[in-house]
Amino acid sequence: MSGRDYMKWFEDARFGMFVHWGVYALIGRGEWVRSNERMTAEEYLPYVERFQPQSFDADAIVSLAAKAGMKYLVFTARHHDGYCMFDTETTDYQSMHYTGRDFVREMTDACRRHGLKTGLYYSLIDWHHPDYPHYGDRIHPQRDDPAWKGVSHDFDRYLRFMHEQIRELCTNYGKIDLLWLDYSYDNMRAETWRGEQLVQMVRRLQPGIILNNRLEASGEGFGSLLSGSPAVTAGDFVSPEQIIPPQGITDCRGRHVPWEACVTMNNHWGYCAEDHYYKPAGMLIRKLVECVSKNGNMILNIGPDGDGAVPAESIRILEEIAGWMKHSGESVHGCGAVPVGKPEYGRITGRDDVLYYHVLEGMIGGVPLNGLKREQIRKITLLKTGEEIPVSDSWITGNYPDLVFADLGEDPRLPDDIDTVLRAELTETSDTPGKMVEY
User: Fold this and answer.
1) How far, in Å, CA of 424 to CA of 378, rounded?
2) Could you write out the DSSP letters of every residue in 161-191?
3) Contact (Cβ atoms closer than 8 angstroms) between residue 28 and residue 273
4) Residue 136 in domain
5) 113, part of any domain
6) Of 328, 358, 388, which residue sits at a domain end?
7) What is the C-alpha separation between 392 and 370, in angstroms, rounded?
8) For residue 111, which of 118, 264, 317, 438 is within the disulfide window of CB 3.0 to 4.6 Å?
9) How far is CA 53 from the centre of its chain?
10) Tens digits of per-residue pLDDT, 173-185?
11) CA 337 to each of CA 172, 251, 356: distance values in angstroms, whole numbers, following the listed order
12) Domain boundaries, position 367
């Protein structure tokens, strides 16, 4: 654990939902479509005007998340296109003006009704604002448009505009548990955003809020959070994107740093009609367990379509995850790394005086319970059913007196082909390795 009380819910939760949704969903080619296709504001405007979603149901989305064992949800209040999904006094380029709906209000209210922690994503970038750098910027849609060459921008005015929108989000929507800022690049980082001033305002308005690290680092770098003496702008957790760190994440002194792998179901954050490369639910479950075994979280994204409907494949995946989490979520929530080496057959998570052995492939001769001696074990159960599992007394396993083997019986097939979880409850007097690794 990080030692900061306000981080406890986040590190106990382990699993969250990201929702990337906005005008770009109507186009159906991902959230970067304006940049990728060099679309001008005038070319984008017809989509803004046509974006009148009828199928968006905040309660249905949050219910999907809750049933899948997700404990928090982060919704895109504004993405790089600058279109605000909330009611703001700063601009008419917002959902209330065009649709009569405040989608941030709908989502934050739904999260509270369903008992999920509430998070908002906000892009520091704005491709719509006239004072955000256009020509020569690395990612702006008009980065190489000669019509913008030599046009001056009042970046200070943009910063006042951006800070005011974040102030509104931190003032008008009740308790916000997490603010997910995105993203920094090139020289656009930290104090370019007036980061210290921004962080101080956010923490004053929302005491106990959790911030990610992207005021000063992009998805490819972790900023000063790993330095041992992080800057004010460093945030509270690292946000590796589309990858699970091979060894987890620690700072320069070897201390645990909270982290969250942000992962898409297919290969896009925003809705992409032609992207059918969905990750199987079983794979996502196993990757979630991998994150937990390394003291990390996973936030899994959905991208509703232009009418606000969640793709059927995303719903199917979430329902399959929900089935596994219903019986084995105990091995995820409140768990973390344990000081026991990774077994060849899977992963280990732990909490207090319990170890969870995640068996991902069948074994010949029993399942070795790494790190345990027989006298340390009070009981072993199959987490899915509660069935008690005996310790093997076979002459075969007897050849390994320093190891304890769980006996799964004669059937070579695992009880759960996604992830069979064995719950090893330890004795109170044992020198337990089951406690989470704390730094």
Assistant:
1) 8
2) HHHHHHHHHHHHSS---EEEEE--BTTBSGG
3) yes
4) yes
5) yes
6) 328
7) 14
8) 118
9) 25
10) 999 999 999 989 9
11) 38, 16, 10
12) 346-426
The answer on 285 and 200 residing in a single domain is: yes
* 89 & 23 share domain: yes
Q: How many helices and strands in the chain, by DSSP H and E? A: 11, 13
The answer on 350 and 244 residing in a single domain is no
If pLDDT is split at 50, 70 and 90, which confidence band does 1 have? very low
Burial class (CB in 10 A: 0-12, 13-18, 19+), 178: buried
Asked whether residue 210 carries a pLDDT value surpassing 80, the answer given is yes
H/E stretch holding 379 reads: strand 377-382
Residue 369 lies in a domain: yes
Given a contact cutoff of 8 angstroms between Cβ atoms, the answer to whether 185 and 218 are in contact is yes
**Residue 10: other Cβ atoms inside 10 A:** 23
Longest dimension (CA), the chain: 82
The whole-number average pLDDT for the span 178-198 is 96
Higher pLDDT, 334 or 221: 334
Determine the distance from the C-alpha atom of residue 61 to the mean position of all C-alpha atoms in its chain, rounded to a whole number: 16
> Are 279 and 307 part of one and the same domain?
yes
- Together in a domain, 211 and 68: yes
Q: Provide the strand spans (E) within 50-149.
A: 72-78, 117-123
* Residue 321 phi, psi (nearest 5): -60, -40
Residue 152 to residues 79, 134, 155, 156, 429, Cα–Cα distance (Å): 24, 9, 9, 12, 71
pLDDT digits (tens, 9 = 90+) for 108-133: 999 999 999 999 999 999 999 999 99
Given 328, 361, 383, the domain boundary residue is 328
Domain CATH number, residue 52: 3.20.20.80
- Summarised one tens digit per residue, pLDDT across range 251-273 is 999 999 999 999 999 999 999 99
Within-domain flag for 353: yes
The answer on 315 and 359 residing in a single domain is no
Q: Do 190 and 279 share a domain, yes or no?
A: yes
Two tokens at 255?
Answer: 């201390």
Buried/exposed code over 323-354 (b: 16+ C-beta within 10 A; e: otherwise): ebbeebbbbbbbbbbbebeebebbbbbbbebb
Which DSSP letter does residue 44 get? Answer: H
Which pLDDT value is given to residue 434?
A: 53
Provide the CATH number for the domain around residue 417: 2.60.40
Q: How far is CA 238 from CA 94, 216, 437, in A?
A: 30, 11, 18
Q: How many domains does the chain have?
A: 2
Distance CA 99, CA 262 (A): 29
204 exposure class (CB count in 10 Å sphere: 0-12, 13-18, 19+): exposed
Is 398 found in the same domain as 256? no
